[in-house]
Amino acid sequence: MYDDLDKKVAVVTGGSKGLGSAIAVRFGREGMSVVVNYHTDEKGAERTVSAIEEAGGRACAIQADISSDEGARSLLETALSEFGGLDVWVNNAGMENRFPTDELSLDDWKRVIDTNLTGVFLGSRCALQHFMETGKHGSIINMSSVHEKIPWPTFAHYAASKGGVEMFTKTIALEYADRGIRANCIGPGAINTPINKEKFSDPEQYEATVSMVPMGRIGDPEDVASAAAWLASDEARYVTGITLFVDGGMTLYPSFQYGKG
Fold this sequence. Notes:
By secondary structure, the protein is of the alpha/beta class. It contains eight helices and seven strands, in the order βαβαβαβαβαβαααβ.
């Protein structure tokens, strides 16, 4: 637990399920007020709000398309009107789908880039503008992936978006460091979330994924939520421009484990 997070205000995009929900609920445990954004899953967002309140925080849900300027701004306006401020902005919303690159349509490319990268820009810009106007030493946390580092065939648009998130985050971290504004990424590996439910329900695919994780297990959403709470807190006050990989060692070239090669 981080005492300095108590009474602070956060926006979490894509907060209706998976990593976004876990982060939002963890913030609730820290005594924070959370704006839970969702795109289509209203019931999921309502469940997240209830879990936050049960954990001791305050929360509200808002539908918005974070790939649009109007959608991103509505989240900031909600944080200010409902909770009186903004301290932490988590750009978590994202999507993925599989296509061989020679079969990838421009529409599918744009859909993933708009959500995963443009949405991060728009949300970060809203947070930066508020922090600059108020002089607040705020924190921006962007959800990247191990695939900012590891190529992922048949997911070229997804990997490109996460590589973009990494460099965008490093750039704004450098640009605003002297204003006390921090920006960092979290890079999850294989995590047991709804987006992976179908894959992990297949024993063969599950074991194939586990074999790529040196720690030998699939991660939990709470592992990522713990990283987000730390990055948001004053314990990480001297940390900016990094990607904190939460991946059980997946980015450490697991094929070389046990001295192979």
